[in-house]
Write a structure and sequence with these properties.
ANK repeat; Serine Threonine Protein Phosphatase 5, Tetratricopeptide repeat; mainly alpha; 407 residues; 18 helices; two-stranded antiparallel ribbon; single chain
Length: 407
């Protein structure tokens, strides 16, 4: 009745114990099963760090001689009553039932922590120990999404192997986080993750899924100018003509960022799109020996497009050269001619300024920009040191206590 009234099955008392822990301590099979079916968390611990499985009082099994004794439970056998169940067997079944629900989450938490710390060995061991690969972290990311988001320097092979094991363990390959991004979105956004992109596509990831802003994996790859990733996605039948909620397509994004060859590649697939097969696309092309194929695509359009691009680049180059020459010929502006508005000052400011330091700065003051760059570099160094200390922990003695160095 309490569960039907939507009581919190994971509520704790003053000792940090839940109803599941108390039922396990009492050896109440029916209450334990009802709580687990209602979503009770078997991985919760009390104030002493004990889980529900730790609180089960497991009875010692009886000796074999006593179990095989023909006179055992002779009264019940003579009267035809039910023989009482062995308490040791009953308690072990109760413990196994609780640990069966506790184990996936327990090792799932270990998996998430290992992926956050880029510990491939522990993550692989957690998956082999039946960790729940669809468990979410505090940001709403699954193990597969967290794996694709992480920057694993020179360890793309490990990422691919972990992704394959996670999917084999039941991970949802098309899981979308709070923003609607999948593992394929993050892998496509990072151009160096081509091997992971191809692996996810072979595992039947949907290349046409859009996130909350309507962006697809192809749009992210085009925005970064990653031509090989774009090719892999379009060979897997990614939707080329889709637009996001701002009305931009993958081709428009590539053009907007100045990646003309990438935009031309996408345009070529628009003219001769891949035939859509089964949901999730086809397997990406692997590097094989070139074979003669019957091509039904008119490459004269492609040649014409390439010629137009070359002409545009030559025109732009000549314009840039002419502008740079004109800029060199123009005299340097004087401080008196610029006025206070050029420095972000009110129009009624006395001009020219009497401060000689301001005169030396010239028309542009880069001091504020230099400070921003220094702050960014300092933050990068702090993050690199933090990641290094997480992978190679160091300890110091402070006030008589051994403490881990964080920064």
């Amino acid at each position: 009745m309490a569960i039907e009234a939507r009581a919190d099955v994971n509520a704790k008392d003053s000792f940090g114990q839940t109803a599941l822990m108390l039922a396990a301590k009492q050896g109440d099979h029916e209450a334990v099963k009802a709580l687990l079916d209602a979503g009770a968390d078997a991985a919760q611990t009390d104030s002493l760090g004990r889980s529900a499985g730790d609180l089960v009082k497991v009875s010692q099994p009886r000796p074999v001689e006593e179990e095989n004794n023909p006179l055992k439970n002779w009264r019940e056998k003579m009267s035809g009553e039910a023989v009482p169940e062995d308490p040791a067997k009953k308690s072990m079944e109760l413990k196994a039932m609780i640990e069966g629900r506790e184990k996936p989450k327990k090792y799932g938490l270990i998996l998430m922590k290992a992926l956050a710390q880029k510990d491939a060995r522990t993550a692989e061991a957690a998956l082999e120990a039946d960790a729940d690969p669809n468990l979410l972290d505090d940001k709403g990311d699954s193990a597969l999404v967290l794996l694709a988001k992480g920057k694993w320097k020179d360890q793309e092979g490990l990422k691919v192997r972990l992704a394959q094991k996670a999917v084999k363990a039941g991970a949802d390959i098309d899981f979308q986080n709070v923003q609607g991004n999948t593992a394929l979105h993050f892998a496509a956004n990072r151009g160096e993750s081509l091997e992971l992109v191809e692996s996810l596509l072979r595992l039947r990831a949907n290349p046409s899924l859009a996130n909350g802003e309507g962006n697809t994996a192809l749009m992210y790859a085009a925005h970064g100018g990653h031509e090989e990733v774009c090719t892999a996605l379009m060979e897997a039948c990614a939707a080329v003509m889709l637009t996001n909620r701002f009305g931009l397509s993958a081709e428009a994004m590539a053009k907007g960022k100045g990646f003309k060859s990438c935009a031309a590649l996408i345009h070529a697939y628009e003219l001769a799109p891949k035939k859509v097969g089964e949901y999730g696309g086809t397997e990406p092309k692997r590097k094989e020996k070139k074979k003669e194929q019957h091509l039904d695509f008119d490459y004269s359009k492609w040649d014409k497009l390439e010629q137009e691009m070359r002409n545009d680049e030559e025109v732009e180059q000549s314009v840039r050269q002419r502008e740079s020459l004109d800029a060199m010929k123009r005299p340097k502006p004087k401080l008196e001619d610029l006025g206070p508005q050029a420095f972000g000052l009110p129009p009624d400011t006395p001009w020219p300024p009497a401060d000689p330091a301001l005169r030396k700065k010239g028309p542009f003051d880069y001091g504020h920009w230099d400070q921003i760059v220094e702050d960014i570099e300092r933050q990068d160094k702090v993050l690199e040191r933090y990641e290094h200390l997480q992978q190679n922990p160091k300890y110091e003695w402070r006030d008589g206590q051994k403490m881990q160095v964080i920064f």
